[in-house]
Input
Amino acid sequence: MNEELNAYQRIWFQTVFDPYVRDNPNAYISYPFFLGVSETYFRSEKRIMIVGQETRGWSGYKPDWSIEDTRQWAIDYLNYQLRYSNDQILREQFGRRNSSPFWSFFKQFSKEDIVPSWNNIDKAQRFVEGKTMGLTEETEIKLNCILPDLNKTLFQTEVEITKPNAIVFITGPNYTVTMESAMNLKEGSLKEAGLSYQNGCVDITEITGFGIPVFWTYHPRRISSRRNPLNRDEIVEMIKGQIA
Output
């Protein structure tokens, strides 16, 4: 899987991302995040792709980083967070395990033989004066364009290659534009899903057309609010019940 991912990630990097960065130096784009999957995921019969907003704190653009090394970092970090690996080297590299709302929610899916992969809807961020900031809508659309000679985006290809049994977007309504672009959907398609504080999570399977259950939730920091009738535990159990 990772070799297949590498091929399309390289196409995206060379034909979409790198040219955009070179042509827009004032956009201050960070180095991109690259999805990778572990052996645990590869062997599992129950897989789920968890899609976050962006890699918070991701550092500035470094053209000397390789796709393979960056992807391995993501695999190692996920394995460490989910306790699939207690390697001493990883302990020294990552330190205390992440207990943020995102990762606390994420870890709840790694139960009952379900193995998650970690992806982000925005592959990069802006990195301005030492601080990370979200991408502009213009940049989101540019970086999520159709790959050359293909009728699909990088995200669509990632789903096709990794073959999850379900997808969960933990992105909230502020990332609607980049979600629609990444999934090659018609502009405004996700509005009809009706994601709100009141429901906390909606089924967008029919809209996305992946042929597997697809859910869209608010960021876990918002889900934990008392204003939401659905709490994290209920959302997780509802989604896990849809995984074949």
Observations:
- The longest helix spans residues 2-23.
- The mean pLDDT is 88.
- The chain is about 40% helix and 10% strand.
